[in-house]
Description:
There is one protein chain. This protein is α/β, with parallel strands linked by helices. The chain has helices at residues 40-47, 70-80, 96-106, 113-122, 138-150, 168-185; strands at 2-11, 14-24, 29-33, 55-60, 63-64, 81-84, 156-160, 188-193, 204-207. Strand 7, helix 6 and strand 8 (188-193) form a beta-alpha-beta unit.
Amino acid sequence: MLALRDLRHAYDGNEVLRVDAWQAGAGEHWLVLGPSGSGKTTLLHVLAAILRPTAGTVSIAGQDLGALKSAELDRFRGRHIGVVLQRLHLVPSLTVMNNLLLAQYFAGLPQDGARAHAVLADLDIASKARSYPHELSFGQAQRVAVARAVVNRPQLLLADEPTSNLDDARCEQVYGLLESQARACGSTLVVATHDQRIKSRMSNRYELRERA
Protein backbone atom coordinates (compact mmCIF):
# COMPACT_ATOMS: atom_id res chain seq x y z
CA MET A 1 0.00 0.00 0.00
CA LEU A 2 2.87 2.32 0.86
CA ALA A 3 6.37 2.04 -0.58
CA LEU A 4 9.35 4.37 -0.32
CA ARG A 5 12.68 3.89 -2.06
CA ASP A 6 15.89 5.95 -1.97
CA LEU A 7 13.96 8.84 -0.43
CA ARG A 8 15.91 12.01 0.35
CA HIS A 9 14.90 15.52 1.29
CA ALA A 10 17.11 18.54 1.86
CA TYR A 11 16.63 22.18 2.79
CA ASP A 12 19.27 24.63 1.51
CA GLY A 13 21.56 21.71 0.74
CA ASN A 14 21.24 20.16 4.21
CA GLU A 15 19.77 16.66 4.18
CA VAL A 16 16.98 16.37 6.75
CA LEU A 17 15.45 13.05 5.73
CA ARG A 18 16.80 9.76 4.42
CA VAL A 19 14.76 6.59 3.91
CA ASP A 20 16.49 3.89 1.87
CA ALA A 21 13.46 1.57 1.71
CA TRP A 22 10.23 1.12 3.61
CA GLN A 23 7.00 -0.69 2.81
CA ALA A 24 3.71 -0.88 4.73
CA GLY A 25 0.82 -3.12 3.78
CA ALA A 26 -2.89 -2.31 3.52
CA GLY A 27 -4.52 -2.03 6.94
CA GLU A 28 -1.25 -2.18 8.87
CA HIS A 29 -0.58 0.18 11.77
CA TRP A 30 2.90 1.75 12.03
CA LEU A 31 4.77 4.05 14.36
CA VAL A 32 7.42 6.34 12.94
CA LEU A 33 9.79 6.97 15.83
CA GLY A 34 12.73 9.27 16.36
CA PRO A 35 13.91 12.25 18.40
CA SER A 36 13.10 15.83 17.52
CA GLY A 37 15.04 16.78 14.40
CA SER A 38 15.10 13.29 12.93
CA GLY A 39 12.70 14.14 10.08
CA LYS A 40 9.41 12.67 11.32
CA THR A 41 7.31 15.66 10.30
CA THR A 42 9.10 15.93 6.96
CA LEU A 43 8.39 12.25 6.30
CA LEU A 44 4.71 12.69 7.18
CA HIS A 45 4.48 15.67 4.83
CA VAL A 46 6.05 13.61 2.04
CA LEU A 47 3.61 10.74 2.67
CA ALA A 48 0.74 13.22 2.73
CA ALA A 49 1.75 14.57 -0.68
CA ILE A 50 2.16 18.01 0.89
CA LEU A 51 5.90 18.03 0.18
CA ARG A 52 7.70 16.68 -2.86
CA PRO A 53 10.99 15.01 -1.85
CA THR A 54 14.33 16.07 -3.24
CA ALA A 55 14.94 12.55 -4.54
CA GLY A 56 13.47 9.05 -4.49
CA THR A 57 10.08 7.49 -5.12
CA VAL A 58 6.90 7.51 -3.07
CA SER A 59 4.10 5.11 -3.99
CA ILE A 60 0.70 5.20 -2.26
CA ALA A 61 -1.99 2.67 -3.19
CA GLY A 62 -0.02 1.79 -6.31
CA GLN A 63 0.30 5.40 -7.47
CA ASP A 64 3.74 6.96 -7.96
CA LEU A 65 3.21 10.42 -6.47
CA GLY A 66 6.09 11.85 -8.48
CA ALA A 67 4.16 11.17 -11.69
CA LEU A 68 1.27 13.45 -10.69
CA LYS A 69 0.97 17.14 -11.51
CA SER A 70 0.06 19.53 -8.68
CA ALA A 71 -3.70 19.53 -9.31
CA GLU A 72 -3.72 15.74 -9.70
CA LEU A 73 -1.73 15.40 -6.49
CA ASP A 74 -4.24 17.53 -4.58
CA ARG A 75 -7.12 15.42 -5.86
CA PHE A 76 -5.30 12.18 -5.05
CA ARG A 77 -4.54 13.37 -1.51
CA GLY A 78 -8.15 14.31 -0.90
CA ARG A 79 -9.45 10.94 -2.02
CA HIS A 80 -6.83 8.57 -0.62
CA ILE A 81 -4.95 10.23 2.26
CA GLY A 82 -6.25 11.53 5.58
CA VAL A 83 -3.99 13.72 7.71
CA VAL A 84 -4.11 14.90 11.33
CA LEU A 85 -1.36 17.48 11.77
CA GLN A 86 0.07 18.93 15.00
CA ARG A 87 -1.86 22.12 14.26
CA LEU A 88 -5.41 21.11 13.50
CA HIS A 89 -6.00 23.72 10.76
CA LEU A 90 -9.80 23.75 11.02
CA VAL A 91 -11.30 26.55 8.94
CA PRO A 92 -12.49 29.04 11.60
CA SER A 93 -15.23 30.63 9.49
CA LEU A 94 -16.94 27.28 8.80
CA THR A 95 -19.05 25.10 11.07
CA VAL A 96 -17.84 21.64 12.03
CA MET A 97 -20.13 20.07 9.42
CA ASN A 98 -18.94 22.41 6.69
CA ASN A 99 -15.30 21.66 7.54
CA LEU A 100 -16.07 18.02 6.71
CA LEU A 101 -18.05 18.87 3.59
CA LEU A 102 -15.15 21.04 2.43
CA ALA A 103 -12.86 18.01 2.59
CA GLN A 104 -15.24 16.18 0.28
CA TYR A 105 -15.40 19.15 -2.08
CA PHE A 106 -11.61 19.48 -2.36
CA ALA A 107 -11.39 15.76 -3.16
CA GLY A 108 -13.84 16.22 -6.02
CA LEU A 109 -16.38 14.01 -4.28
CA PRO A 110 -20.12 14.60 -3.90
CA GLN A 111 -20.94 16.39 -0.67
CA ASP A 112 -22.40 13.66 1.51
CA GLY A 113 -23.92 15.12 4.66
CA ALA A 114 -25.07 11.71 5.85
CA ARG A 115 -21.51 10.37 5.75
CA ALA A 116 -20.15 13.45 7.54
CA HIS A 117 -22.82 13.19 10.23
CA ALA A 118 -22.14 9.47 10.69
CA VAL A 119 -18.44 10.13 11.28
CA LEU A 120 -19.21 12.88 13.79
CA ALA A 121 -21.63 10.55 15.57
CA ASP A 122 -19.03 7.78 15.65
CA LEU A 123 -16.64 10.20 17.35
CA ASP A 124 -19.36 11.38 19.76
CA ILE A 125 -19.43 14.97 18.51
CA ALA A 126 -22.57 15.00 16.36
CA SER A 127 -24.03 17.62 18.69
CA LYS A 128 -21.26 20.01 17.58
CA ALA A 129 -22.07 19.82 13.85
CA ARG A 130 -23.31 23.42 13.77
CA SER A 131 -20.61 24.79 16.09
CA TYR A 132 -17.62 26.81 14.94
CA PRO A 133 -14.03 25.79 15.83
CA HIS A 134 -13.66 28.57 18.42
CA GLU A 135 -16.66 27.16 20.29
CA LEU A 136 -15.00 23.76 20.78
CA SER A 137 -12.77 22.49 23.55
CA PHE A 138 -9.35 21.31 22.46
CA GLY A 139 -10.43 17.68 22.77
CA GLN A 140 -13.51 18.31 20.64
CA ALA A 141 -11.43 20.10 18.02
CA GLN A 142 -9.09 17.10 17.86
CA ARG A 143 -12.06 14.82 17.24
CA VAL A 144 -13.24 17.09 14.43
CA ALA A 145 -9.75 16.96 12.89
CA VAL A 146 -9.87 13.15 13.02
CA ALA A 147 -13.38 13.19 11.52
CA ARG A 148 -12.24 15.42 8.67
CA ALA A 149 -9.27 13.13 8.03
CA VAL A 150 -11.43 10.00 7.70
CA VAL A 151 -14.63 11.38 6.13
CA ASN A 152 -13.48 10.33 2.63
CA ARG A 153 -12.53 6.81 3.81
CA PRO A 154 -8.79 7.23 3.10
CA GLN A 155 -6.55 4.30 2.32
CA LEU A 156 -3.75 5.98 4.28
CA LEU A 157 -4.33 7.77 7.60
CA LEU A 158 -1.45 9.88 8.94
CA ALA A 159 -1.03 11.57 12.32
CA ASP A 160 1.88 13.83 13.28
CA GLU A 161 2.65 13.93 17.04
CA PRO A 162 -1.04 13.62 17.98
CA THR A 163 -0.41 12.96 21.69
CA SER A 164 2.80 14.79 22.63
CA ASN A 165 1.09 17.63 24.52
CA LEU A 166 -1.62 15.54 26.18
CA ASP A 167 -1.97 14.01 29.63
CA ASP A 168 -2.04 10.23 29.95
CA ALA A 169 -5.83 9.88 29.83
CA ARG A 170 -6.23 12.09 26.76
CA CYS A 171 -3.23 10.41 25.09
CA GLU A 172 -4.95 7.04 25.40
CA GLN A 173 -8.22 8.49 24.12
CA VAL A 174 -6.74 10.16 21.03
CA TYR A 175 -4.69 7.15 20.06
CA GLY A 176 -7.76 4.94 20.50
CA LEU A 177 -9.73 7.23 18.17
CA LEU A 178 -7.08 7.01 15.46
CA GLU A 179 -6.84 3.25 15.80
CA SER A 180 -10.59 2.66 15.72
CA GLN A 181 -11.17 5.00 12.78
CA ALA A 182 -8.34 3.39 10.80
CA ARG A 183 -9.95 -0.01 11.36
CA ALA A 184 -13.38 1.31 10.39
CA CYS A 185 -11.98 2.63 7.07
CA GLY A 186 -9.57 -0.26 6.48
CA SER A 187 -6.79 2.33 6.36
CA THR A 188 -3.08 1.91 6.80
CA LEU A 189 -2.28 4.02 9.88
CA VAL A 190 1.05 5.81 10.29
CA VAL A 191 1.66 7.79 13.48
CA ALA A 192 4.84 9.86 13.78
CA THR A 193 5.82 10.49 17.40
CA HIS A 194 8.51 10.59 20.03
CA ASP A 195 5.90 9.92 22.74
CA GLN A 196 7.12 6.86 24.63
CA ARG A 197 3.65 6.17 26.04
CA ILE A 198 2.28 4.75 22.80
CA LYS A 199 5.31 2.72 21.70
CA SER A 200 3.79 -0.45 23.14
CA ARG A 201 0.58 0.01 21.13
CA MET A 202 2.06 -0.88 17.71
CA SER A 203 4.41 -3.68 16.83
CA ASN A 204 5.29 -2.22 13.40
CA ARG A 205 7.90 0.52 13.76
CA TYR A 206 10.08 2.57 11.48
CA GLU A 207 12.77 4.49 13.34
CA LEU A 208 14.51 7.61 12.09
CA ARG A 209 17.82 8.74 13.49
CA GLU A 210 18.66 12.32 14.30
CA ARG A 211 20.44 14.00 11.41
CA ALA A 212 23.95 15.25 12.17
